[in-house]
Amino acid sequence: MPFRPRYTGLIERYRDRLPVNDDTRLISLGEGNTPLIRLENIPDLLGKDIELYVKYEGLNPTGSFKDRGMTMAVTKAVEQGSQAIICASTGNTSASAAAYASRAGITAFVLIPDGKIAQGKLAQAMMHGSVIIQIKGNFDEGMQLVKEVAEHAPVTIVNSINPFRLQGQKTAAFEIVEELGRAPDYHCLPVGNAGNITAHWIGYCEYSNGGDKPITEACAFCAGEGHCRFASGAIVSQRPTMVGYQAAGSAPFIQGSMVDNPETVATAIRIGHPQSWDYAWKVQKESGGWFDACSDEEILKAQKMLAEKEGVFCEPASATSLAGAMRDIQNGKIAEGSTVVCTLTGHGLKDPDTAIKQSTSPLLTIEPRLDQVKKAIEENMAG
Ligand code: AN7
After folding, report:
1. How much distance in Å is there from the Cα of 68 to the middle of ligand 1?
2. From CA 200, how far away is CA 52, in angstroms rounded?
3. Which atom of ligand 1 has the smallest separation from the CA of 280?
């Protein structure tokens, strides 16, 4: 019988490109290896000739891309003897930290903005047995507290300022290049702290030899850490243009300065003081990309369109990448004939409340009788 080896997570798969050795105990839940889905209906609706893909990171073990970084961060924390990890979070980082800490048998402390994280994420942090500290403030205030407390208490920060997080997350770019046999022309991501857009750029740089976009400062991100195999790792000749989209009410990269009271329906990216500010500007410059903002209405519209027209359910923040890409495809900023990848960072089930609130699907309640169900079908048959 033909068989293939069991997939055991991204550290094992990309071991030679990650800072682990043979003795490292890997803390993994089988993260990574997510589907790259080609959209079939939306390009037609846009009336544009475009090869448009979504990288469905919501299919990671805890339902978001954070697992890629968390497997690395927790693996290294355990290797270094840490008994506890800590993070501030808009929800997904806390869910992921909680899960990987329980897997490792250590404690996770998670600081979340009181009342401002999606229900599914709160359920995850609670179910995995983390210590949940709700703060009467926003993510940025929580992040500041985490940085301060980590100087005094024996806890390892697992936010994306932990460099191992970005090392894990860069593997998403590897997967895309391997599947397409090239880098896409454009890679669009939602941006909060800007860790993920930075991580993707690290991955694309490691997998390219410069090509049409010469690398000026190769691997500045991992300089000095001694694990970058950039020079030996070139497998394709080009790198994508990186495009970051933010929610209009939380858009420091578009404003050009920090935002003190961020607001958006996309609570995952309700972040006004991005931790990877300098890195992300470097990514924008080196890749020739740009940042732009999407309104909450555009974000929710893209989320619904993706769910209704393609069968893919992502959370609101994730739809920001598609909302922005659709606009830039429409206005020609992203040229026809291009190959475009949009990262869908988190699963739609993370935030059922927002989904149900905006749904316009017929929700019928009937008596349990044949005539009533027949009537419901007749009245709602498409065409
Ligand atoms: C679904 O969980 O910051 O630009 O604390 O959950 O790398 O910050 C979440 C971020 C996009 C932004 N999409 O990524 C947290 C947190 C989703 C997210 C982002 C987040 P970065």
Report:
1. 12
2. 18
3. 4
Tokens of 225: 């850490």
Contact status, residue 24 vs residue 41, Cβ threshold 8 Å: no
Express each pLDDT in 305-317 by its tens digit: 999 999 999 999 9
Give the residue, out of 68, 198, 345, 349, with the most ligand 1 atoms within 8 A of its beta carbon, to mutate for a pocket test: 345
Could you tell me the distance, in angstroms and rounded to a whole number, from the CA of residue 196 to the centre of ligand 1?
A: 8
For residue 346, what are the β-bridge partners?
64
Atom from ligand 1 closest to the CA of residue 160:
7
Per-residue pLDDT tens digits for 333-380: 999 999 999 999 999 999 999 999 999 999 999 999 999 999 999 999
Lowest mean pLDDT among 220-224, 291-295, 316-320: 220-224
Ligand 1 centre from 141 Cα, in Å? 16
Q: What is the pLDDT of residues 176-223, one digit of tens each?
A: 999 999 999 999 999 999 999 999 999 999 888 754 443 333 444 444
- Taking CA atoms only, the protein residue closest to ligand 1 atom 9 is 268
Q: How far is the CA of 199 from the centre of ligand 1 (A)?
A: 12
Spell out which residues line ligand 1, taking CB within 6 angstroms.
64, 89-93, 160, 190-196, 268-269, 315, 317-318, 345-346
Q: Which ligand 1 atom is at minimum distance from the Cα of 193?
A: 8
CA of 371 to the centre of ligand 1 (A): 48
